[in-house]
Amino acid sequence: MRRFLLALLAVPALSATAFAQTTPAAAATPSADEAAVRSVLTKYQQAVQKLDTTGTARLFTANSQVFESGGVEGSYRHYAEHHLAPELKEFSAFTFSDYKAAVQVDGPYAFATETYTYTINLKKDPKEKEAKAPIVRRGVATSVLRKNAAGQWQIMSTHTSARTPRVKK
User: Fold this and answer.
1) Measured between alpha carbons, how far is residue 14 from residues 19, 118, 130, 134, 150 in Å?
2) Lowest CB count within 10 Å: 33, 86, 118, 142, which one?
3) pTM here?
4) Neighbouring-strand partners of residue 111
C-alpha cells in the first residue's frame, strides 16, 4: 500500500510537467472531466476561505489520505475534524491569491498541482492590545482524484506544503 501511495504522489509532478508541455490550444479547451476536477478543487478552496468545512467530506473518498508539511494527517474526515476545522475557528480570514492549477486527466484518475499564496488573519485575542500580524505563505498542493461510480470526481490523496515567501531583492 505504501509503495502504491508513494507512486501516486510522484505522478502529479510528472503529470504537471506533461500538462505544461501541451499545446496552448489544448490547454485553452479543457475537457468536461478537467473542468469537473477543477470544480472540486475550487469548492474545497472556497470552503477554506469561508472558514467552514461543512459538506467538504463529499469532495474526498472515504479512504482518502491527507499529507501536510511533512505530516501524515490520516483521512480527510479525521483531518477536518481534528486539524482543519479547529484551526479555522482561530482565524478571522483565510484568503488565496496568485492561484494556478495544472490538471491532467487519465481515465478515471486525475492529477492536480496547485500553487498559491495564502494569507491568514488570526482572531484578536481579547487579552492582546492588537491583533497579530497576518500570516502569509506560498503554498503548493498535489492531489490525486478518482471518478467514482456515480461519475463524481473525489480527492483520494492530497499533499500540501508551504513556506514563507522569498523576499525579492
Assistant:
1) 9, 25, 45, 34, 28
2) 86
3) 0.80
4) 104, 144
User: Which of 107, 115, 98 lies closest to 13, judged by CA?
Assistant: 115
Place of cell 500570516: 135
Q: Where are the domains of the chain?
A: 2-22+31-163
What per-residue string of b and e applies to 6-28 under the rule 16 or more CB within 10 Å gives b?
Answer: eebbebbeebbeebeeeeeeeee
d(CA 112, CA 68) in angstroms, rounded, equals: 16
The CA distance from 116 to 96, in Å, is: 6
Collapsing DSSP states into helix, strand and coil, what is residue 91? strand
Decide: 120 and 134 in contact? Cβ < 8 Å: yes
Residue 65: strand pairing partners:
157
Q: Which numeric CATH code is attached to 2-22+31-163?
A: 3.10.450.50
Q: Where are the alpha helices (DSSP H) in the chain?
A: 2-20, 24-28, 32-49, 76-79, 85-88
The β-bridge relationship of strands 153-163 and 60-68 is parallel
Grid coordinates of 52: 467552514
Residue 94 pairs in a beta bridge with 120
